[in-house]
């Protein structure tokens, strides 16, 4: 992903043992020099930076500066030995502050496993967080813990800084906070439903029906946050939530609230417009095969340990139909230095210029283990920015010759536009293409010499505005030796007005895939390559830099459904959704110790199960209504996507032929509150047609009779 992991800071603290029966021990307060400054080195540029706080009793602290895409950017590695601390009776404390509100993940590592918990409420004021060891999970041998890692969460704010101070081992465990209670009340149309959503606007926490007098009251408790609270922070910070009112025949209305509660939250619902239209199945449908590897995803090296140990997440990946995994993920692919020394952590900055972490055989082994756990094809990206073809060839040697992992796909570099500074001009694109062509011509033969069976992919261009001239010029020079044409696609930016699309425009962008594939094929053929090359979209999502709430909301789910359908119809062979877990873009996120399945999960699950074998386009008389027919395991389904924000389509769908006796058009609906739940939306007419009700901004899946 553009700008992802562009810089990294790593500081390893001195090893300090906590002997039995001793008092709390400060591992590090960062008061390293007489004037209170703490000095550290910028991993990417090797420039020395200093940080100092003037108040609040913190004359020296570690300050980590990072940019827009900050997930996993900055790390604090601390030697931790918990000898003498009873696992259920000890803990850790530390002071944190950030000039922009941000979440932080703490990780305990024993060299093999990683255990984590999340902290919320890090803001511009110094706050002390105290965490019992029990918060990191059961079954941990704390005597073997070697390292504490502080991982800043991702934020959409401008570049910002995280301050860390007074990392302390606690002899007495702090107490965990109690669950936060909430209560909201107001007025809404009688019989309507009030739903309380989490801050991702897609997870329903509670619901209640409005009484006949038009009143509602909704209350309860949220799970306690997965961080401990001390007297310095006596209560959890208010949590942002969303209240939505909905009723059949009306547009949903939403208000932002928080756990402090509020009275008088009144809703007025606007009736939707019902539009009668028609749709049809093709009389003799020709199904386009859906490549199994279309349902791929990106796994970052920064989370591979956690994913390998998370059986619940692996089960959810299998349920979603994940069939291919790309690794090491995004910009990190071009920042890792390959070494055979398994003692090197991925986040430590090598002394060699241009690298911000290590890639070792142990990391690659874990990646393959994740692929095996979910029965997914591995897809590997080598560091192209390094220009070191010998190291890339050695990774192939280790993986496919020595370990016989048989990784079929090998991508050379990630988004080469970033190697040269992200300018937007044709001359810049030509410069990028020229540099990448030279890199590819050195890497491809070196890697193929080790294993001739591999398929090499390039140029992994960042977005459509770079395809011409980057991809065009690359294929003119390298089409004959390119096994897979790799590109990325993010249609817009949720936050930047210059690149922002409204919902209606965004939901229409999947229709571009046919044109894109035809263009790439023409460039391949002009360069002496095949007329239809294998095409891999190795990163895709709604927003290229600042994903907003709609990315993880209903609009994101509808867009993902349409994008999967149109990629299959357009001729994409391999797809890699960005990304797997714990990021603003991700398919999954862990919140308060629970796994949350975001919109992309529901889209992938439906498409991989109901459209896994083939797909064809149905006929619709309205451009905002998309009709697709899918085949899977000898069953057929129709999916009707309503991209209109205010129109309910009543669709008379025909073309079934002779219906079996008592055939039930079983319907499932994805909308504001339903996740492809059963929906009474079909009426069979005497003429053998089905009238289907498709509410605004929804997706209706209908079981069709067999051919």
Task: Please characterize this protein's 3D structure.
The chain has 707 residues and is of the alpha/beta class. It has 4 domains: 9-170, Sandwich (Jelly Rolls), CATH 2.60.120; 180-271, Immunoglobulin-like (Sandwich), CATH 2.60.40.10; 291-608, Alpha-Beta Barrel (TIM Barrel); 617-704, Immunoglobulin-like (Sandwich), CATH 2.60.40.1180. 19% of the residues lie in helices and 34% in strands. The protein has 10 helices and 42 strands. Strands 21-22-25-26-27-28-29-30 form an 8-stranded parallel β-barrel. The protein has a 7-stranded antiparallel β-sheet with strand order 20-33-35-36-42-38-39, with helices on one face. It has a 5-stranded mixed β-sheet with strand order 1-6-11-8-9, with no helix packed on it. A hairpin with a 4-residue loop joins β38 and β39. The radius of gyration is 27 Å and the shape is globular. 48% of the residues are buried.
């Amino acid at each position: 992903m553009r700008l992802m992991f562009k810089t990294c800071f790593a500081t390893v603290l001195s090893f300090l043992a906590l002997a039995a029966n001793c008092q709390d021990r400060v591992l590090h307060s960062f008061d390293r020099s007489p004037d209170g400054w703490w000095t550290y080195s910028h991993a990417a540029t090797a420039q020395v930076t200093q940080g100092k706080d003037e108040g609040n009793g913190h004359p020296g602290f570690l300050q980590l500066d990072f940019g827009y895409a900050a997930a996993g950017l900055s790390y604090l590695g601390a030697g931790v030995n918990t000898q003498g601390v009873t696992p259920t009776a000890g803990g850790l404390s530390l002071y944190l502050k950030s000039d922009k509100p941000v979440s932080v993940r703490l990780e305990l590592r024993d060299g093999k496993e990683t255990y984590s918990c999340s902290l919320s409420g890090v803001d511009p004021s110094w706050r002390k967080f105290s965490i019992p060891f029990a918060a990191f999970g059961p079954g941990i041998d704390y005597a073997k813990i070697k390292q504490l890692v502080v991982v800043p969460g991702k934020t959409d704010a401008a570049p910002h800084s995280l301050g860390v101070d007074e990392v302390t081992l606690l002899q007495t465990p702090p107490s965990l906070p109690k669950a936060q209670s909430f209560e909201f009340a107001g007025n809404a149309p009688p019989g309507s439903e009030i739903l309380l959503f989490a801050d991702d606007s897609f997870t329903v926490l509670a619901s209640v029906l409005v009484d006949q007098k038009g009143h509602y009251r909704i209350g309860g408790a949220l799970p306690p946050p997965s961080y401990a609270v001390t007297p310095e922070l006596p209560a959890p910070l208010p949590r942002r939530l969303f209240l939505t009112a909905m009723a059949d025949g009306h547009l949903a209305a939403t208000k932002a609230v928080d756990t402090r509660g509020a009275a008088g939250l009144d809703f007025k619902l606007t009736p939707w417009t019902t539009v009668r239209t028609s749709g049809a199945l093709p009389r003799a449908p020709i199904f386009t095969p859906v490549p199994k590897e279309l349902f791929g995803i990106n796994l970052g090296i920064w989370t591979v340990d956690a994913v390998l140990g998370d059986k619940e997440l692996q089960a959810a990946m299998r349920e979603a139909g994940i069939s291919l995994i790309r690794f090491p993920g995004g910009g990190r692919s071009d920042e890792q230095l390959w070494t055979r020394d398994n003692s090197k952590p991925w986040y430590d900055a090598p002394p060699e210029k241009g690298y911000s972490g290590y890639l070792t055989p142990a990391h690659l082994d874990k990646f393959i283990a994740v692929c095996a756990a979910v029965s997914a094809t591995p897809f590997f990206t080598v560091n192209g920015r390094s220009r070191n073809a010998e190291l890339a060839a050695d990774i192939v040697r280790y993986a496919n010759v020595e370990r016989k992992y048989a990784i079929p796909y090998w991508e050379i570099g990630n988004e080469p536009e970033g190697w040269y500074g992200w300018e937007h001009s044709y001359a810049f694109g030509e410069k990028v293409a020229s540099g990448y062509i030279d890199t590819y011509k050195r890497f491809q033969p070196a890697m193929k010499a080790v294993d001739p069976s591999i398929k090499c992919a390039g140029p992994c261009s960042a977005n459509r505005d770079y395809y011409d001239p980057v991809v065009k010029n690359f294929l003119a020079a390298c089409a004959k030796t390119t096994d897979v044409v790799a590109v990325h696609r993010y249609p817009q930016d949720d936050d930047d007005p210059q690149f922002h699309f409204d919902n209606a425009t965004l939901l229409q962008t999947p229709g571009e895939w046919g044109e894109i594939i035809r263009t790439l094929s023409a460039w391949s053929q002009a360069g002496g390559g095949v007329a239809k090359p294998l095409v891999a979209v190795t990163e895709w999502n709604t927003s290229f830099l600042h994903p907003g709430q709609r990315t993880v909301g209903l609009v994101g789910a509808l867009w993902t459904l349409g994008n999967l359908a149109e990629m299959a119809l357009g001729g994409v062979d391999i797809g890699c959704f960005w990304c797997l877990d714990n990021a603003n873009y991700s398919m999954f996120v862990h919140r308060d110790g629970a796994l949350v399945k975001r919109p992309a999960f529901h889209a992938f699950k439906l498409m991989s199960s109901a459209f896994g074998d083939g797909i064809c386009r149905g006929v619709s008389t309205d451009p905002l209504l998309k009709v697709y027919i899918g085949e899977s395991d000898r069953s057929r389904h129709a999916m009707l996507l309503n991209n209109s924000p205010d129109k309910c389509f009543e669709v008379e769908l025909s073309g079934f032929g002779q219906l079996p006796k008592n055939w039930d058009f079983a319907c499932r609906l994805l909308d504001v509150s339903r996740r492809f739940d059963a929906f009474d939306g079909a009426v069979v007419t005497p003429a053998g047609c089905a009238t289907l009700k498709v509410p605004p901004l929804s997706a209706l899946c209908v079981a069709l009779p067999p051919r």
